[in-house]
Design a protein that fits this description.
The chain is an all-beta fold. The chain has a domain of 88 residues: Rieske Iron-sulfur Protein (3-layer Sandwich), CATH 2.102.10.10. The protein has a four-stranded antiparallel sheet, with no helix packed on it. A three-stranded antiparallel sheet has the order 1-10-9, with no helix packed on it. The structure holds FE2/S2 (inorganic) cluster. The site of FE2/S2 (inorganic) cluster has 10 residues, from loops.
């Protein structure tokens, strides 16, 4: 049983075509967390939390499409201010995914529409595929 399957977690009434990533509380405030691809997919997602706000992106750098994290769930710089791509050092704003420095400056991460219900994070079922 995953956190999304717990009674009262919201799994009972998901909007059509969504999947649950898990509880917001699973992401440390000011931190990040990675999520595997959906069944049959190959590109995962990741999230950055700022208080009650959760920003979810496809885990694919706009430079050459590599996953960003340097270690599992570690997507942020040491200060926790910017998302960093481990491959070539591109840096992105957590709030909108805009690349502020590196080989893809001016590009942006692919943002994922996110819905929070009863403390659980829901995204479109096919996001990240
Ligand atoms: S793949 Fe991310 S900066 Fe090159």
């Amino acid at each position: 049983m995953t956190a999304c399957d717990r009674p009262g977690a919201g799994r009972e009434s998901p909007a059509h075509g969504e999947r649950c990533l898990g509880p917001v509380e699973e992401i440390p405030d000011g931190g990040s967390r990675g999520y595997p691809p959906p069944p049959g997919g190959f590109t995962g997602l990741f999230a950055v939390r700022r208080g009650e706000a959760v920003f979810v992106y496809v885990n694919s750098c706009p430079h050459v499409g590599l996953p960003l994290e340097i270690q599992p769930h570690r997507f942020l710089d040491r200060a926790g201010e910017l998302i960093v791509c481990a491959a070539h050092g591109a840096r992105f704003r957590p709030e909108d995914g805009y690349c502020v420095s590196g080989p893809c400056t001016g590009d942006a991460l692919e943002a994922v529409t996110t819905r929070i219900e009863a403390g659980m994070i829901w995204v479109p079922e096919k996001a990240g595929i």
